[in-house]
Design goal:
The protein contains 4 helices and 7 strands, in the order E-E-E-H-E-E-H-E-E-H-H. It is of the alpha+beta class and 156 residues long. InterPro entries: Pop5/Rpp14/Rnp2-like (IPR002759), Rnp2-like_sf (IPR038085).
Length: 156
């Protein structure tokens, strides 16, 4: 029996700035992306950069994506890690939305990627809570952190 080895990638989708009236504007809107859109975009980019050879080497599986924090976890074949990472590095849009993908962590086991994802989500929600408190608004980060942690730990 053959055992397929994988790499787990923690990534972040960054919205690219837009030029409006000769000024650079960093939009702070929701990207409205989901895990299927990201998987499909990476798979299509693999075909563009590496042709039929790259398309036939393996599948992309985005296991989890949080649209609030724009952090996701994906699984790729171990033997072609560099091919997938380079493709993600050169991507400039996902589903016609101008954005780029930053690689935050690559690991052979999901446990290290899960702990890093929990930390990223935690710091994001705490920062959001601090910004809301400065404005005098009520924002509970504890519930969102726990919900995110529960979703991340359920990935296998």
């Amino acid at each position: 029996m053959v055992r397929f080895k994988h790499r787990w990638i923690l990534f972040q989708v960054n919205q690219d700035p837009v030029i409006e009236n000769g000024q650079i504007v960093y939009p702070r809107t929701s990207l409205r992306l989901n895990d299927q859109m990201i998987s499909r975009a990476i798979y299509n980019q693999i075909e563009i950069y590496y042709g039929q050879f790259g398309k036939g080497l393996g599948s992309v599986a985005v296991k989890w994506y949080n649209p609030d924090t724009r952090i996701g976890i994906m699984r790729i074949p171990r033997d072609y890690t560099n091919m997938y990472l380079s493709t993600m590095f050169y991507m400039n849009k996902v589903a016609s939305v101008p954005c780029s993908i930053s690689i935050l962590r690559v690991s052979g086991t999901i446990i290290f990627v899960q702990t890093a994802a929990i930390e990223w989500d935690r710091t994001y929600y705490i920062r959001e809570q601090e910004e809301a408190e400065k404005k005098g608004q009520h924002y509970s980060s504890a519930e969102k952190i726990e919900a995110s942690k529960k979703q991340i730990t359920s990935i296998s």
